[in-house]
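This protein record is not my work; I was only asked to verify it. Would you go through it and say whether the fold makes sense for this chain? Here is the record exactly as it was handed to me.
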Amino acid sequence: MESIQAIKQRFGIIGNDAKLNRAIEKAIQVAPTDISVLVTGESGVGKESIPKIIHQLSHRKHGKYIAVNCGAIPEGTIDSELFGHEKGSFTGATQTREGYFEVADGGTIFLDEVGELPLTTQVRLLRVLENGEFIKVGSSKVQKTNVRIVAATNVNMFEAIKKEKFREDLYYRLSTVDINIPPLRERKEDIHLLFRKFASDFALKYKMPTIKLEDDAVAILVKHRWNGNIRELRNVAEQISVLEQTRTISAVTLQSYLPSQGSNLPAIINTSKSESDFSSEREILYKVLFDMKGDLNDLKKLTMELMKSGNASDVQKKNEGLIQKIYGGEDEDESFDDAVEDLEVLSIPEKTIIETPTIENSQDKYHFAEEIEEEETLSLQDKELELIKKSLERHQGKRKLAAAELGISERTLYRKIKQYDL
């Protein structure tokens, strides 16, 4: 088994970071087997080196090695690229074509950016991983292939699984062994080594003297965050090598090539948001008004029951649930009894003849009872409708949760939904 240092020299890997050495060591150990490997890490950290190490140290090294960038292939053609297609299977398919899995039989396929695969392609890939079978686009014939799959991604796979953008069963099939490549900002001691290597390469390529950094420039180079990792460092080294006439680079000169990172002061950002959280004070106000409206309508209903029956105990038994909702707590009966004691029960005279209302009887002392049927203003109805819609959207149409959030019963919410034709 080759040493880690020998592997670095063979594949042009620079750095002495412990995490990088551990990643290379895992690649060496897993290479002789046919286990699927998932290489994770940020964009630009050099994930493509690991599949090459695995392939060259495996018994498949004489077979084909194919690297496929899954994010660069359009969704409509990726199945054809990976698994092939039959003649006439779709517009433009003028002849039968072999896919990568058929061509690389006996070798290794490196699926870069595997997190970008469409869900339909993920199902096909899962079948290849399980039993080595695939079907060409437009064919019904099952074909066999013997390939080793090494995948890589810079996507947070658990977040992708949570958002249903990546299949959980496929993730566990791919990540039998997970090799993580650390970002450049965690490899402080390697940053200057890499810069010197790139500077030497570009000096040889462009036939000019090698650039060198002053001590203060080295300090700035190491402190920089390098969001683009090794790719960004290489670009900066190339720019300076081509554009600068003076081959000794100061801190000021280097700083002009580095993008501004903004303030380094820490900040606490609360990205979590409660499901029942409202985005503005105005919505909270409308929520309160909506609750008040519901309580007022319930009180009106109780008042009408008392006016019609004149028997408080019967009304209390008949509307026990409504009374508990309005008064709440353990003492709802006492609260209701206290309210009834202060209420003058109005006797409504029985009439068998329907009279035509006149100016005199329209001024009846009970004319305020007409206000019971009075409709709310249009703006309040609109806001009530808006609140109901938002609550249903937040709870994905679950009426029970929406009713609890709005402070109304599920039956009342159902009536409102029918009323507003939601």
The mean pLDDT is 82. Residues 281-309 form the longest helix (29 residues). DSSP finds 19 helices and nine strands in the chain.
